[in-house]
Amino acid sequence: MKIHNFNAGPSILPKEVIRKSAQSVIDFNGSGLSLLEISHRSIDFLEIIEKTTCLVKQVMNLNDDYAILFLQGGASLQFSMIPYNLMDQEAAYLDTGFWAKNAIKEARKFGKVKILFSGKNQNYTHISKHYQIPCNVDYFHCTSNNTIVGTQMKIFPKTSVPIVCDMSSDIFSRKLNFCQFSLIYASAQKNVSSAGMTIVIIKKNILGKIKRNIRNIPSYMDYKIHIQNKSILNTPNVFSIYTSMLTLEWIKNKGGLSVLEKQNQHKAKLLYNEIDNNNLFENKIHEEDRSDMNVSFFLKDKKLEKEFNKMWKKENIVGLEGHRFLGGYRASIYNALPLESVQFLIEIMKEFERRHDRK
Ligand code: PMP
């Protein structure tokens, strides 16, 4: 039975990745043991970490100035780890949605936070491009894709200040000049792998700059210690790391990020086009800020929700409900979601419109 999976996260992964990772749980590389039964310090597993690290660098075109870490605690732990390691006095943040707000809340526990832009008054439907980053802040933090409301930064500022970016919901979905970032983090459960692992990509030279001797960083919170220990300071999420390796191989075999970007843009364009032209639906995001990963939309007449929900659920579409804070609908159209699922959803929306035209 074909299921069209629009879940926001954990979410769809390539079928072949799921098949291979499931096989590794039963029998890892013909060893007679499960991936879950071998030591994270065994040569076999160290090879997996090494290979995954190389693949991240290759796919993102990053050199050895960057360290790649596979940590736990989700993107949420990064909200604290970042200021713990990087904030001396003050950092600048963009308030572009729920997750950005959470990052700001944690950062405030470590020092001063300057909000350069807040989309709050516009219900986060827009991301400003006209803000000034003060040159004396320790870093600038932004969220490249706002998973809940469905906005995405298409351009990033030029600045001498280190740029820190939460890419949890659009990592590996498009080609960017990744060298412009000093720190990128992303929890794995959207475009990459199973939940329980966070990829952190750090330009090593930004560490160790806190001047005030204000804090002794606990070991697990210290990026330098993780770099020294190559992500096995403690027992990492072996399954999620292995599955990331498989996804990165899949990305490479597809032709890399520029190929995926074109596919993702095409899927998003088709869906936004339908929302804009269908009399029953609307999208509230400023056009230039619309996300290619999370497409949010609403029925203009809320009274039709029950009927529409019944219709798409009957057609084996899953995960289309909007976030619990927002309501409406959200189609998460990550890398692994096939074009045919988007086309299928569009057909359902068209059919719903036809039904109501006839009424
Ligand atoms: N940032 C963004 C942009 C997210 O979408 C999410 C999760 N949906 C998070 C952070 C939090 O991730 P986690 O649940 O892994 O802590």
Task: Describe the model.
The chain has nine helices and 14 strands. With 359 residues, the chain is an alpha/beta fold. The protein folds into two domains: 15-254, Type I PLP-dependent aspartate aminotransferase-like (Major domain) (Aspartate Aminotransferase, domain 2); 256-356, Aspartate Aminotransferase, domain 1 (Alpha-Beta Complex). Helix 4 (98-107) links the parallel strand 3 (90-95) and strand 4 (112-118). The two termini are 32 Å apart. The mean pLDDT is 96. The structure holds 4'-deoxy-4'-aminopyridoxal-5'-phosphate (PMP). Residues 9, 74-76, 99, 143, 147, 166, 168-169, 187 line the site of 4'-deoxy-4'-aminopyridoxal-5'-phosphate (PMP).
Beta-strand residue percentage: 15-25%
- Looking at the overall shape, the CATH architecture of the largest domain is 3-Layer(aba) Sandwich
Tally the helices.
9
Mean pLDDT: 96
Parts with pLDDT < 50 across at least 5 consecutive residues: none
Which helices and strands occur, and which strands form pairs?
Elements: E1 4-5, H1 15-26, H2 43-60, E2 66-71, H3 74-86, E3 90-95, H4 98-107, E4 112-118, E5 140-143, E6 145-146, E7 151-152, E8 163-166, E9 183-187, E10 198-203, H5 223-228, H6 238-254, H7 257-277, E11 281-282, E12 294-299, H8 305-314, E13 317-318, E14 329-332, H9 339-358
Parallel strand pairs: 1-13, 3-4, 3-5, 5-8, 8-9
Antiparallel strand pairs: 2-10, 6-7, 9-10, 11-12, 12-14
Helix pairs in contact: 1-6, 2-6, 3-4, 7-9
Bound molecules: 4'-deoxy-4'-aminopyridoxal-5'-phosphate (PMP).
4'-deoxy-4'-aminopyridoxal-5'-phosphate (PMP) is lined by residues 9, 74-76, 99, 143, 147, 166, 168-169, 187.
